[in-house]
Amino acid sequence: MLPLEISDEENLYRGITKQPQLWKMAQDRPSSAAFKDSKGVSVDREGYRGEAELVDSLNSRFELRAIVFVNAGYCRRIETSPIAKPLDDNPYHAEIHNIDRVELTASKAKKLARGCVVVTKYDS
Amino acid sequence: MSDTSYLEKPSSVVSSFRIHSKWNGMEPAKFVLKNKFIIDERKSTFQHESSNSTLENGKFQKTFIKRYWNEALIKSFLDLSYNWNGNGAVAIDKAVVLRAISLLRVLDHQPDIFPTARNTIQFEYEYGDDYLEIEIFDGYFNVYRCVDNGETEYRTTAFQRVREEVLNYHASIRNK
Questions:
Q1: pTM to 2 decimals?
Q2: Do residues B100 and B89 make contact, with C-beta atoms less than 8 angstroms apart?
Q3: Which of A44, A68, A122, B114 could lock A33 by a disulfide, CB 3.0 to 4.6 Å apart?
Q4: Distance, in angstroms, between B145 CA and closest chain A CA?
Q5: By the 8 A CB rule, do B71 and B104 touch?
Q6: Does A85 reach chain B within 8 Å, measured CB to CB?
């Protein structure tokens, strides 16, 4: 079972949907809009899986334009909180919240968008 | 009551534009299209009736078409299916869509546009590290500007203030 404490070394994966389009073609990365969610930014921890299994898992749930990850230590450095939120059907689920509330500010959402690493991209 | 007339499909307006392109050779005239854009063929300019600025004909087609593309995109956010982000997000409210379209129509520069999972629509301009974002909420705008590494963020309800912010942003990047 995964520990509930997310370490700074962990990477947190997020699928970027194809429809609606949240990918910025010119910049070749997601819009900060992809990191604005009233329920918190939903991400998957890698856990004890390999990246290939994780990618397959995300692809089975959505039609994706890309898969990206943000490092948990980076999330903390920009003053956001990665929180483990395991679900019955997804023990790897986590959320990124603002420090004092759930929703991120424009500035923090932009930092996540610019600080994420592209794992894989699919045709637009 | 809200004016929802511009929620009709944009194809009719685009076809008005195509009709306009066939007006070559006719007496130059000033036309007010259904959508409140004013085309002055004598001056070869294009203007929104709520705007004081005009665009030259060369920029006209690109801006005109992108504006209608963007309007269609914004309207499509009404039809987003439940759970479109895999985390229970719902379609964007009509009030937010109407507000976004109203803002779009007074802007002189067309943004990149994205929905969010917090019932808002986001307009973005990005040039290198310089960035301007307008997030449209139900009832107000959140403006976030990051230019020359200086950040500013504020809320406003004023369309004109947002329009000026966009103009100032583009003026600042023109000088770089």
A1: 0.80
A2: no
A3: B114
A4: 9
A5: yes
A6: no
Cβ separation of B85 and A107 shorter than 8 Å?
no
**pLDDT tens per residue across span B81-109:** 999 998 899 999 999 999 999 999 999 89
Q: Do B116 and A17 touch (CB under 8 A)?
A: no
Reported ipTM: 0.93
Q: Report yes or no: A15 at the B interface, CB cutoff 8 Å.
A: yes
Q: Do residues A119 and A29 touch, judged by C-beta distance below 8 A?
A: no
Instruction: Examine the pLDDT at A22 and tell me if it is beyond 60.
Output: yes
Task: Give the integer Cα–Cα distance in Å for B148 and B129.
Answer: 8
Cis preceding-peptide flag for A20 (omega within 30 of 0): yes
For a pLDDT cut of 70, what percent of chain A falls above it?
Answer: 99
Nearest Cα neighbor of A93 from A44, A59, A50, A41 is A44
Which residues on B lie below 8 Å from A15 (Cβ)? 86
Count Cβ atoms below 10 Å from residue A61 Cβ, excluding itself. Answer: 13
